């Protein structure tokens, strides 16, 4: 037999053996009815373009998780030996078999996808609704988000062919019904009438005024945060920006002129953009959230380089893809930032579990590289990211992900007290993390039967830590005023970590990286907050008490003690 004939025979055989490919579908995720807060409008137009994200299963996430704990646990001999991009990507990358199977499936639809993460575990492609319906045996429909009036294309169920089902970890957009208008906006109490930039501020920040109005001087005094400038240019804090919230430089200058007279008022931040992001500077486009986040990093982490990453809305319909894109964008860099702070979030229950797990893997990867990932816990108390109607306590996303640090809010100075809006509780998606299991079980024991049946006692508990978050003074659009929210607390805590990292790097040490094992191993370096509660869902919520609690976590920063715990 000639070589050509035998090849032909072999390929005929393999066709016969494979049978009709990609026709046996396995349901991946589904909803029995339209999720709360959305109304079905009708079938999505066949021609509507869907910007799909397809997550491939990582070849060895368990290996990455072990490596993450090895480099983040102070008692480990590998503590601080953060991984390189290539080392992390080797764990995250899909297997060759997975890549080939998914490629064959896309080929069968005449499609090709773009890799959208440096490890190759995320693919992006644009397809019409009609094609997505075939690919996923789905029925994409148009749903209106009641609160914002925005419409999104989603499906109540999606399936994958048997050949790729084990290789694909998540698909988006599909069954995730997240808030398309973004979330975790701070509550702003700016005077209604325009005022001059320096008018109507509380008098100079003395410690007694800090009981009701927070400025950088208050935080320096309360937490012992130094005013001496950082020295290390390689050490940075990333502030993430979404949903066209822009950080205004003139507002930052006004803020520094008023609150940081000891440093140059021209101190500023760097800008990075992705997904068509920008940072226009007209006063009318100044975003309260972005200004808050920038003013309480540049204005508190004195001298630490701050980078505002403005994520645009190309190829994404809200903050969810933004969460994914920013972490994949930064992870693709050879040098990752040492801290990333984010003041946006979702309801955990609105997220597809598969998508939530895959996004959480990206935070583990970032932590393994040496980045401290901080998120505001949410502003809905036990009601989740934001206040809502509920009969059982709601978890906030991504705070339930165990590979990031969730920051709650406190107010007052003697003593500091948990804020009623401080989101906290227990995840329904992730179990309690090892690093926190004794702290969480001590809380559960102390709480006794209170809140029984309202929360998941086996879940990961959050927040991990807290910081001031009420009547925090900012400038926005040329006006000044106070804002409330865990949105304030995350950048404040991020600044403390940025300043500690500066000293670690100056001493030739590694930055802190993933914080939680270090935090729970050193609870006494934090100011334990033992008053306050976060009521909601028609119940009393959780109560702050000695030790960790799901209102204030382990407590607020004590800079000197944290430095000591960091070995400085
Ligand atoms: C959303 O709006 C629809 C139609 O107006 C209504 O039937 C539904 O109850 C609303 N859902 C919520 C959660 O408000
Ligand atoms: C701001 O100052 C003006 C003039 O002193 C005063 O009338 C007004 O009540 C003040 N507004 C606030 C919010 O304190
Ligand atoms: C959480 O869910 C509630 C009820 O569906 C909704 O009103 C709220 O906007 C959601 N919050 C976020 C942050 O998406
Ligand atoms: C409770 O949390 C665990 C994770 O620890 C999860 O597996 C379980 O499904 C959750 N229970 C409910 C009712 O959501």
UniProtKB/TrEMBL annotation:
Protein's organism: Favolaschia claudopus
Name of the protein described by the UniProt record: Family S53 protease
GO BP terms: proteolysis
Cofactor binding summary note: Binds 1 Ca(2+) ion per subunit.
Main location: secreted
Sequence positions that bind Ca(2+): 528-529, 547, 549
Gene Ontology MF, one: tripeptidyl-peptidase activity
Record domain Peptidase S53: where: 213-568
CDD domains in UniProt: Peptidases_S53 (cd04056), Pro-peptidase_S53 (cd11377)
Entry-linked InterPro entries: Peptidase_S8/S53_dom_sf, S53_propep, Sedolisin_dom, Tripeptidyl-peptidase_I
